[in-house]
Structure formats: C-alpha cells, structure tokens
C-alpha cells in the first residue's frame, strides 16, 4: 500500500483543521474567560469534568447511529452543536459561570459527535502504511493552527479590551464552524455497518485480548490530558495577566511542534514505535521538572511548553496509530470498528475524568500553587504508564515490521 494520502484523506484533514481552528480561536481562551469572572480553579475543573463526561457518553450512545447510518450527518452535527455552545456563551456573557454544568455538557456532546465520526472515517480512509503519515499531518495542521489561531485571538482581546474582544473571537469561531460544515459536504458518504453491539466494548476486555493492554494504556493517556487540557493556558494568564502572552506561548510552542510532528510523521517506522513511544513518554515527563523545582512563571512554563512540543509526537503518534492498527488487525475487528473506537474513547474518558476529579479533590483540600505543580508532575508521568500497558502490543508491531 502507498504511504501517500488520498483525496478523501486530505479533505478530512481540512475539515479537521477547521474544527481545530475554531477551538484554537475561542476554546484557547474559554477557561481564561471563566477565570476572570470566577477566580475559581475548582469551578473550571467541574466545567472540564462536565465536558469529558458528556464526550464519553456521546461516544457510547451515538455509536449505534454512526455505525448504522450516515457518518457525515454526525460529523456535521458535532460542528453544529459546538456552534450552539458558543451562541449560548455569547448570549450569557459573564453569566456563563452560572451555567457551568449545562454548558459543559453541551460542549462535550458537540466534541463527542464530531470526534466519533471523525475517528471512524479516519480509520476508513487510511491503512497501516499511511496512518503514521496521516497522524503526522494532523499534528502539523494542529501546529500551524496553534501558531496563528491563539496569537490572533490574544491580539484581538488585547486590542478590543476585555469582553468585546472575547465576543469577537467567539463570533469568529462560529464563522469557521460554518465553513467546516460546508466543506464536509464534499466528503463521500461512507457505507453503513452492521448492527451496533452496545456491550462489545465490555466483551473485548476478556482475558488474552490485546484490548486488555490498550484500554489501560488509553486511560493513562487520558489521565494527563484531562488536567493539562484546561490548566496550562490558565497558568500562563495567572502568571502574566495578559491574554496576548497565551497567544505568544502558543505561537512559539506550535512552531516547535510543527517541525517535530513533520519529522516524526515522515521518518517514524513500525519497528521504532516501541522505543519512540517510551522515549517520548519519559521526556514529556522530565520537562515538567522546572515547574516543580522553580517558581511557576512565564519562563518555566515556556521551557515546559517547548519541551512538550518537541517530544510529544514521539509518544502521541505511536500510541494513536498502534490502537487503530489493532482495529484493522482482522476482518472481525474492522466490522466492529465503531464499537472499538468507542472502547478507545471510553477508556480515554475514564482517564480524563479520574485526572480531573483528582485535581478537584486534592486542590480543594490544599489550595496552593505548589499543589498544582506536584499534581502536574504526578498526572504528567501517566504516559510512561501508558507505554508500560501497551508495550507487548508495540513489540508485536516491531516483530511484524
């Protein structure tokens, strides 16, 4: 099979890029917007928890319709629901903090709908030979968007001063979502699958199944992601009191990430996934060290950000590609691809929820910045556990190569 990407893969990358761009323009500053009103880490933690809970439930419940009906409907529906979220935020304004639970659930549902449909279509338009390349391009696009999206938003907020700037970036996100919906109509309709098995994710966890390795690995991956997804931009704003610094941070780290994702996507081979993932997991843990050893400020956050951007692709591309290779490992797995993607996402969601709950509970008991940095180190080491759980499946990939 060719390692080159086909037209449908490129079109799917474009739709994904627009969805991510909308999030970069507005979602990057969403938690900062809530923080400026509430000054409450715990509240933002619960907002994130709601998103993650809704995302996991949406994956499981809508898996039936994604498998048995047109996947593109749910891809577009995810974009539309995400747009509705920002419409509600525009309507609520500073009273958004009064609707944390319903808004968090709405935002998570939109993300769940989009990413479930995207992951299923992504599996169908790629194969083992070009999956690493596709994931490399996903990372490259995410990096390019990370360079310009948050920087533009941070500049607009600074120029427009406060609430006006935030409303403007939320409107821009709505426009980008609209373009993404239009572009998605050029994606071909995918074939319907067979009947959806609600309990298939549970059945796959029987003794001897490789999913007994993949599920814990995915949960460990989510443990880090759940906390870091909302915390980093908040720490930058708290340290600098300037939104444009978040844009600057994103610009610099995304430039580094762009080169790193390109290099790993281009040169990583099956026989290096085992060691590549381990090295990446160790290094993205080590770069948290400056935040623990020294004071949390813009410089230590920048060291952490650049280090993470440089080494994350070594971990992220193998862990993603290996799981999807397992889904394509047999005819039976391919037929159950929707259920298996749901299993992967439920595992990640369990990790995200556990990480976020751990943050909420521990910080509520010890509300200090030192608590946050030690928590970051603890959950930030979870990728090493992810590699440990997946190591046997990775070794099989090395032997196959």
TrEMBL record:
Q: What is its main location?
A: membrane
InterPro entries hit by this protein: MFS, MFS_trans_sf, Sugar_transport-like
**Alphabetical keyword list:** Membrane, Transmembrane, Transmembrane helix
Q: Which segments cross the bilayer?
A: 12-35, 41-61, 73-93, 99-122, 134-153, 165-187, 222-240, 246-265, 272-293, 299-327, 348-366, 372-390
Q: Which residues form a coiled coil?
A: none
Query: Where found in the cell?
Result: Cell membrane
Q: Give the matching SUPFAM superfamilies.
A: MFS general substrate transporter (SSF103473)
Query: How does the record classify its membrane topology?
Result: Multi-pass membrane protein
Q: What is this protein called?
A: MFS transporter
Q: Which organism is it from?
A: Paenibacillus puldeungensis
Top-level taxonomy: Bacteria, Bacillati, Bacillota, Bacilli, Bacillales
């Amino acid at each position: 099979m060719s390692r080159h990407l086909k037209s449908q893969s490129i079109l799917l990358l474009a739709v994904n890029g627009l969805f991510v761009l909308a999030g970069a323009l507005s979602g990057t500053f969403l938690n900062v917007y809530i923080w400026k009103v509430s000054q409450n880490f715990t509240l933002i933690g619960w907002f994130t928890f709601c998103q993650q809970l809704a995302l996991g439930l949406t994956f499981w419940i809508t898996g039936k319709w994604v498998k048995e009906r047109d996947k593109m409907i749910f891809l577009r529906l995810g974009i539309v629901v995400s747009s509705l979220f920002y419409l509600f935020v525009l309507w609520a304004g500073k009273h958004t903090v009064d609707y944390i639970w319903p808004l968090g659930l709405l935002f998570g549902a939109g993300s769940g709908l989009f990413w479930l449909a995207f992951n299923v279509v992504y599996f169908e338009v790629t194969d083992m030979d070009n999956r690493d390349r596709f994931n490399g391009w996903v990372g490259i696009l995410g990096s390019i968007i990370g360079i310009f999206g948050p920087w533009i938003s941070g500049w607009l907020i600074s120029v427009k001063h406060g609430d006006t700037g935030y409303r403007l970036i939320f409107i821009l996100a709505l426009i980008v979502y609209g373009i993404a919906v239009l572009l998605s109509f050029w994606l071909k309709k995918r074939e319907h699958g067979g009947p959806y098995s609600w309990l298939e994710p549970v059945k796959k966890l029987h003794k001897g199944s490789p999913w007994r390795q993949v599920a814990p690995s995915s949960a460990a991956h989510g443990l880090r992601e759940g906390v870091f997804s909302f915390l980093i931009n908040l720490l930058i704003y708290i340290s600098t009191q300037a939104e444009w610094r978040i844009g600057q941070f994103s610009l610099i780290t995304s430039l580094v990430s762009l080169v790193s994702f390109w290099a790993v996507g281009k040169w990583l081979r099956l026989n290096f996934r085992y060691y590549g993932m381990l090295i990446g997991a160790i290094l993205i843990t080590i770069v948290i060290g400056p935040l623990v050893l020294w004071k949390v400020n813009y410089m230590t956050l920048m060291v952490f950000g650049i280090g993470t951007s440089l080494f994350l692709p070594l971990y992220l591309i193998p862990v993603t590609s290996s799981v999807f290779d397992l889904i394509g490992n047999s005819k039976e797995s391919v037929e159950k691809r929707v259920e298996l993607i749901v299993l992967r996402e439920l595992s990640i969601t369990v990790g995200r929820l556990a990480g976020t709950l751990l943050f909420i509970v521990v910080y509520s008991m010890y509300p200090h910045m030192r608590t946050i940095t030690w928590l970051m180190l603890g959950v930030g080491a979870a990728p090493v556990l992810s590699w440990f759980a997946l190591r046997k499946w990775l070794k099989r990939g090395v032997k196959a190569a």
